[in-house]
TrEMBL record:
<dbReference type="InterPro" id="IPR003960">
    <property type="entry name" value="ATPase_AAA_CS"/>
</dbReference>
<keyword id="KW-0547">Nucleotide-binding</keyword>
<feature type="region of interest" description="Disordered">
    <location>
        <begin position="353"/>
        <end position="380"/>
    </location>
</feature>
<feature type="region of interest" description="Disordered">
    <location>
        <begin position="560"/>
        <end position="620"/>
    </location>
</feature>
<feature type="domain" description="AAA+ ATPase">
    <location>
        <begin position="283"/>
        <end position="448"/>
    </location>
</feature>
<dbReference type="InterPro" id="IPR057495">
    <property type="entry name" value="AAA_lid_BCS1"/>
</dbReference>
<feature type="compositionally biased region" description="Acidic residues">
    <location>
        <begin position="367"/>
        <end position="377"/>
    </location>
</feature>
<keyword id="KW-0378">Hydrolase</keyword>
<keyword id="KW-0496">Mitochondrion</keyword>
<protein>
    <recommendedName>
        <fullName>P-loop containing nucleoside triphosphate hydrolase protein</fullName>
    </recommendedName>
</protein>
<dbReference type="InterPro" id="IPR003959">
    <property type="entry name" value="ATPase_AAA_core"/>
</dbReference>
<dbReference type="InterPro" id="IPR014851">
    <property type="entry name" value="BCS1_N"/>
</dbReference>
<keyword id="KW-1133">Transmembrane helix</keyword>
<dbReference type="Pfam" id="PF00004">
    <property type="entry name" value="AAA"/>
</dbReference>
<dbReference type="InterPro" id="IPR050747">
    <property type="entry name" value="Mitochondrial_chaperone_BCS1"/>
</dbReference>
<keyword id="KW-0067">ATP-binding</keyword>
<dbReference type="GO" id="GO:0005743">
    <property type="term" value="C:mitochondrial inner membrane"/>
</dbReference>
Amino acid sequence: MEAISAVLPGLTASATGDPSEGFPGGQFMGNMLASIGFDPSLLVKISVTITIFASMFGFLSNAWEGISQMSRFFSENFISSATIRSTDEAYVYIMRFLYAHNISTDSRLFGVTCRRNQMNPNYREHAKWNGQDAENEVDGDGFNIVEDSLGPKLKYNAAPGFSHFWYKHRLFLMQRKLKDDYYGFEEPEVDLTLISIGRSPLALRCLLEEARAEYLRDRQSNTLIHTIVASYPPNWSVGYPRPPRSLDSVIMKKQDKERLLKDMKEYLAPNTVHWYHKHGLPYRRGYLFYGLPGAGKTSLTMALACELNLPIYCLSLASTMMSDDNLLGLFGKLPKRCIVLMEDIDSAGIDKRPGPGGRLYTALTSQDEEDDDEDHAEDIRKREERKKLQLFKSESTVTLSGLLNAIDGISSHEGRILIMTTNYRQLLDDALIRPGRVDMEIKFEHADIEVLEGIFRGVYADPDDLPDFIRGKEKMTDEEYMRRYHEKLNKLAHEFASRVPSGKFSPAQVQGYLLGHKSDPEEAMDCLDEWLESKVDEINQLEEAEKKAKERLERAAERKIKELQKKKKERLKQERQEKEEEEEEEKARKEKEVEAAAEAEKEKRNKGGLGKWLVRRDTS
Ligand SMILES: Nc1ncnc2c1ncn2[C@@H]1O[C@H](COP(=O)(O)OP(=O)(O)OP(=O)(O)O)[C@@H](O)[C@H]1O
C-alpha cells in the first residue's frame, strides 16, 4: 500500500478515508459516491488492475518485439531459405526429389492422394511427375507401383504446413502453404519454403542442384510428352515421361530414315540458325508423315525425339478446345527446341476458308459449288471425299488461315520442328503442305519384304526373351551362341518375309501377329498359314470394298462435274439469249428513233414549204 500511495497519492488518500488529501475535489467526489452507496476504495482497485494490465501489455509487446527482432536476427544470420512456387518448374524438381528420397512422407503429418487420380485429370498429369509414376512401372517385387488388383494405390507426400527432414546429416525445415483461392479444376497453388540451418546457403543450394540434376537426367533418359491441359486458355502440361524408343525399332526404308535424320540434325546444328537468319529465312522446319494407319508415323516421331533429345508437344486439332486464338497462344508458349506433333491433320477437316461459326468442313457453302466448273475437277474430287469423311470427324473451330498463321505467321515461333501426320494426304489443302511449311514428306506404306524381315527380327531381337531358341547353350561360348542365334533368326525372318505377301499388311498388323507368339518364333512360323488365310480373305474383302468406294466416289465426282458443266452450259445459253434479246431491243429502239427523226424532218419540210408559199402570196 505504501508503494501505491507513493505512485497515486490522490487515490490512496481517498482509500484511507481522507480524500481531501488527494486531488482537488476528491472529497466532494468521495462524498458524492458514498451518498449513492458506492465504495470509493473500489475505484482504487480498478485503477490498480488497469495499471498492472497496461504494464503487462507493455512488457509483452516489448518482449514480442524483442522475440521478432531476435527471430529476424536469427533468420538473417543463422538460416538460409529458398521459396519456390508451384507454378515454377523448379517445384516439380523438388517434389519429385522429396518423393524419390522418401523425404517427409514418413512423418506423422502427411498428404495423401491416389496414384492414379480418377477425379482430376490435371492433377493426375501433375502427379505423374510428382511421384514419377509410370503407369506400367513395377516395384522390386514385380508389382505395379500405380495400382494393385483392387485399384489405384495411395501415394504419400509432404503435408501442407511445417515439417522437417534430414538429408546428408543436415537438418532442413520445409513449409508448404496451400493457396485456397484456386478453382476446383485447377492445381492448388503452393508456396514451398525450404530452410537449412546455418549461415551458408550452400547446403540448400546443393540440395536444389541435386533435385534439378536428378529431374533433368530423368528427362534425358525418357522422352517427355506434353499434351494440352484443359485450362482457360489451354496450356501445355508439365509433361510426362515415356520410355525411350530407339530408331532401330522403327522399321522403314533405310534411305528414308537416313534422309530424315540427316535433315533434322542439320537443322538443329548450332550454326544453322545463323544461316537461316543471314538468308532472311524464318528458322523453322516442317515434315509430313502420311500414309497407311499403323505404319509407324507416331513411332518414328517418338524415336526421333529420343534420338535428338527433344520433348514432344502433341496438338490435336480435332479437340473442341482448339480455336485459332488458342492455337496461336499454344504455339507462342513452345520452348526453343522441340518437336510439335500434329496427328491426323486431316481430321480437323481443314477447308480453304473459315465457314460459319468457324467450322472447317461446313465451310463448303453452295456458293463454292456454284463457282466450280470443270477446270476444278480435282477440287471437286477432294470435296466429295471430304464430305464422306465428314461423318467421322470431330468438331473443331480451327480454320485453315488460323492454322497457317500459327505455323508460320509473322508472330510464329521459331526453332521448332513441326511433324504433321495424316492418313489422307490427298485431302490436305495445297497451302498447308507447300514447301516452307512442309519441307520433307515421308510416305508410309504396306510392309514390303524389307519391312517384314525387319519387324520379325525386331520382335525376337533379345536372346534373353528366348532361352530355348538355341539348344545346347551351356556347351557354347557366348560368341558362338550369339552367332548361331542370329543365323537362325535371320533365316526365319527371311522365310517369314517370303511367305507373307508383300504390300498387303500394315507393319502394325504384322507386329500384332508376331506379338501373339512373342516367346516362340517357330510357333509363329507354324501358325502363319492359318493367320494368312483368315487375313487374306479379310484383306480381299477390304480391298474390294475400298475399290467400290473409290469407284462410287469417282462416279459421284463425275456426276458433280457433269452437273456443273451442264449448269454452266445453261447459264451461258441463257446469257447468250439475254444478250440477243437485248441487242434486238436496242436495234428496234434505234430503228424507231430513225423513223421518228425522218418523220419529224418530213413534217418540218412540209411546214417549211407551206410557209414559203404564204410569204410569196403576201408579197405578191
Ligand atoms: N514401321 C514400323 N516399325 C516398327 N513398328 C511399327 C511400325 N509401324 C507400326 N509399328 C507398330 O504398330 C503400332 C502402331 O504404330 P504407329 O502408332 O506408329 O502407327 P501410325 O502410322 O502412327 O498409325 P496411325 O496413322 O493410326 O496413327 C505401334 O505399336 C508400332 O510399334
